[in-house]
């Protein structure tokens, strides 16, 4: 199924981003404290990699239903009510995530128009906004699927 392949691709991308983040941090620490030569641009690389990692992981969390949930009264409500609340929560979450995606898409278009780049390394920022928008849309889709199919 295409969603399973997509999930596997996201897991792979998240693993690569996490390894890159660890490498940047490790090289910077070793360079800074042992060689007195910190990695140039390490702070900016960390920011960009961490943002990409968070957005890459967001659909995975939605797919697995691993978001934080508070269910103070779920144990005493009838099953049908709990199911209805789950569908309602999925719809609200999907709506908010779609709004985030729209906002990030508009940000990306503005960044493309302005040629926005990171300060010290000059990395284009629009691809990161595009990743965030795509991740929010995918999270909305995964959340809706889970909300309507999970009991």
TrEMBL record:
The lineage of its organism: Bacteria, Pseudomonadati, Pseudomonadota, Alphaproteobacteria, Rhodobacterales. Belongs to the TRAP transporter small permease family. GO terms for molecular function: transmembrane transporter activity. Its main location: membrane. This is TRAP transporter small permease protein. InterPro entries: DctQ (IPR055348), TRAP_DctQ (IPR007387). It is a multi-pass membrane protein. The keyword Ribosomal protein does not apply. It comes from Salipiger aestuarii.
């Amino acid at each position: 199924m295409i969603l399973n392949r997509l999930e596997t691709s996201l897991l792979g991308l998240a693993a690569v981003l996490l390894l890159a983040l660890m490498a940047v941090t490790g090289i910077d620490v070793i360079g800074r404290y042992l060689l007195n030569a910190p990695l140039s641009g390490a702070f900016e690389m960390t920011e960009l990699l961490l943002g990409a990692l968070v957005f890459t992981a967001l659909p995975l969390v939605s797919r697995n239903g691993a978001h934080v949930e508070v269910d103070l009264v779920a144990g005493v409500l009838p099953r049908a009510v709990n199911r209805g609340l789950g569908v309602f929560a999925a719809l609200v979450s999907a709506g908010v995530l779609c709004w985030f995606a729209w906002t990030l898409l508009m940000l990306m278009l503005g960044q493309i128009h302005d040629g926005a780049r990171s300060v010290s390394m000059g990395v284009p920022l629009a691809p990161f906004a595009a990743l965030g928008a795509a991740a929010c849309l995918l999270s909305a889709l995964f959340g809706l699927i889970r909300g309507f199919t999970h009991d």
